């Protein structure tokens, strides 16, 4: 009986292990690589003292009874040098452009039927006007766990503290 149980376990575990070791979607892997490069560029732009400030601000925001992401972003932005801000904004612009290109390629490769004839729905529900990016908001978006990915134009702050107001 024990041998039968062992044989059955191995028979079901072997295909599961083989499936788990398959490489992920190459396009997804490219997106993850872009994200890693982006994160390295942004963190590389900070001085050691500003990395400590960043960690402190994010930590305080995480444990605050009433978090204020706008004030946290302003505090970070005020502390950064002009060269740090420029490097962070440039890295963010490059990352968003590269991700947009990747998503367009993915959508072209994976068309989806739609009743309106458009392969992808167009959403225009009360869009806010585009903000001028600031390094403090970019850093907080990165700390939000997404690194700016899939966060949309409104940025960080959709968690328990509620959305960040314009």
Summarize the structure.
It contains six helices and no strands. The chain is mainly α and 166 residues long.
How do the SSEs run, as a string of H and E?
A: HHHHHH
Count of individual beta strands = 0
Number of helices: 6
Give the end-to-end Cα distance, rounded to a whole number of Å: 66 Å
Q: What coarse outline follows from CA principal-axis ratios?
A: globular
Largest beta-sheet characterization: none
Strand content: under 5%
Low-confidence parts, pLDDT < 50 over ≥5 residues?
148-166
User: What value does the average pLDDT take?
Assistant: 76
- Radius of gyration from the CA trace? 21 Å
By secondary-structure content and strand pairing, the structural class works out as: mainly alpha
**Helix content range of the residues, please?**
55-70%
